[in-house]
Amino acid sequence: MSAASRPRIVIAGDAEQALRRIGNWQAIDALADVSVHHQPLRGQQLVEALQDADALVLVRDRTPIDAALLAQLPKLKYLVFTGTRNTTLDLAALAARSIPVSHTEWGPSKDSTCEMTWSLILGAMRQLEQQTALLRSGQWRSANAVPLAGVLKGQTLGLIGLGEIGGRVAKVGQALGMKVITWSPRMTTERAAEHGATAVSLDELLSSSRVVSLHLVPTPASQHLLNAEKLALMQPGSLLVNTSRSALIDGAALITALQAGRPGFAALDVFDVEPLPATDGLRTLSNVLLTPHLGFVTEPVYERFAQGVTECLHAWLTGQPLVRPLN
Ligand SMILES: NC(=O)C1=CN([C@@H]2O[C@H](COP(=O)(O)OP(=O)(O)OC[C@H]3O[C@@H](n4cnc5c(N)ncnc54)[C@H](OP(=O)(O)O)[C@@H]3O)[C@@H](O)[C@H]2O)C=CC1
Ligand SMILES: O=C(O)C(=O)CO
User: Fold this and answer.
1) Is 191 a catalytic residue?
2) CATH 3.40.50.720 location in the chain
3) 4-18, 48-62, 213-227, 237-251: least confidently modelled range
4) Which helix (H) or strand (E) element contains residue 265?
5) pTM for the whole structure
6) Per residue in 184-209, pLDDT tens?
7) Is 245 a catalytic residue?
8) In terms of Cα–Cα distance, which of 220, 211, 219, 221 is closest to 242?
9) Closest CA to 46 of 3, 90, 12, 91
10) Model ipTM?
11) Higher-confidence residue: 181 or 13?
12) Which class does domain 109-290 fall in?
């Protein structure tokens, strides 16, 4: 194939460099020219980057791909995204342009997110961020400036949702000697007991847990499940953790609740707007631990992403049946 006729593949999103480093890209590089963009692309920058692309790979990227954008990308013939869900893709508009869409598997994203949840819980309980900041500023421990940490053993862990991730989080809590209580819309005493947990009402869970962690799939019914009234039920020294979806909590009510100290602290991996705007009120609070949606961002998940992306691209480049097509 001459250089001029070689297909052009554009990889966009964030952590795309990791994807390219991890995967076996030799077979793809032999057949196509691959370029990588190091930041999520938007607006005119996006159009310029994609104008000559035959295929687009979106890595953990939520760029809206709609009819208006597609009208500016006449060469685009194939799209691959990592994971299984990407609600910012207009699949009807892609189908209207006869652009097939493929996706990859998640790999161990549930284990990764369980570990992230515990990183947040333990990091918040032991104030790892504040302690590191203290040492960075040249100080040593300061028992007066920082309240003493609590111990989780013997405390109550309230899990809202006890599915794939919640179930894993429960096991770790039990290993640490915590009492696990749970609520979710269809929870039963029997299902909770299978995980060694006790089913309670949502109000009881909120008022009696030292740590409350959200693991529900968001639905219209669970939108702002934790509103001002529910947040007010939480104990003053409690910790609220969300690695699930921000829609489960009323964001404005959470900021007010944190300012009032109920809950005492929040550890959040997911936000109403991602990337979190520079002016978001959460950034100004001292009683929060914030991570930029990192639950599933681990080496083994990215290995699976890279494997899946190269599989999809190779099949497309060699004219074989498409791998995991969505449309
Ligand atoms: N931070 C990150 O990087 C990551 C975050 N996540 C998020 O973590 C959350 C939990 O994931 P996971 O444990 O895999 O979820 P599950 O699919 O195991 O579901 C968790 C619970 O949500 C409820 N639920 C599930 N599907 C529906 C539905 N269609 N309608 C109503 N309720 C439903 C169920 O409770 P019940 O039976 O009582 O109705 C279920 O037990 C999700 O929001 C997911 O998006 C996932 C991976 C990475
Ligand atoms: O699977 C999920 O819900 C994630 O958070 C990754 O986008």
Assistant:
1) no
2) 3-107+299-317, 109-290
3) 4-18
4) strand 265-268
5) 0.92
6) 999 999 999 999 999 999 999 999 99
7) yes
8) 211
9) 12
10) 0.97
11) 181
12) alpha beta
